[in-house]
Amino acid sequence: MSQPPAFQCYAKDLLADTEHLTNEEFGAYWRLVCQAWIQDGLVSDERDLIRLSRAGTPGRFRQLWHRLEVFFSTEHRTDGKLSQKRLEQTRQTQRLWREKSSKGGTAAALAKAQARDHQEATTLEPPLVPSDAPNVNSPVSSLQSPDSRPDPDPPLLPSVGAPPQGGQANGSGKKPRTARTRKVKHRLPDEWAPSDGTVAEAKGFGFSDAELEAITDEFCTHWWGDGGVKADWDMTWLNRVIALKHGGRKR
Fold this sequence. Notes:
Elements: H1 11-17, H2 23-38, H3 46-53, H4 58-68, H5 85-121, H6 139-142, E1 186-187, H7 196-203, H8 209-226, E2 229-230, H9 233-245
Antiparallel strand pairs: 1-2
């Protein structure tokens, strides 16, 4: 699968993390980050890294790499390539978002087709009248004497001990309360993405798929770093979408 052409950059975090670097070191660092995104990781080969960072000579690259090596590792990948931790989190968030969007589109189309089939299958037809049914408009039926008409069914007597209609056996007239299921607060999971239903609701506020993907990326990065706990992350994400719709900053 081809790599997405863009990723979110949080300027404040970027400058805070690289404040100690010189302009030359920062330039080499940012080139390597962008190449890690484009190439889906960096091969740990000195000649290749020299070319990508524009360091010039092996000696100069080693001086730069001594300062930049701390930003890159193979810890967050299974293929042995170098990458930057936050970059891989962004890549994972985007991948989950694309998968959810694809599954959501397929599920929505299937649900629409099933609803259409169900509607066609349950279309009501006018009831057929049996040929031997009495004709209520016939003058003969109106001439029957009261004694010759069948007696109506006798009313059913309530069973002994049965509760009155509309009430309960305890005689209070109130329905018993059902116990609420309390959600346990927890941290945002590493591979979290909003549910299809929540995404569909968010689209109702006028956001495009690309905008919601960027909001999700920003949301996950914030809460992964914050470490806060919530009982319902879907609702927290939707509240963030609503806040952005109205120009707010609340997460």
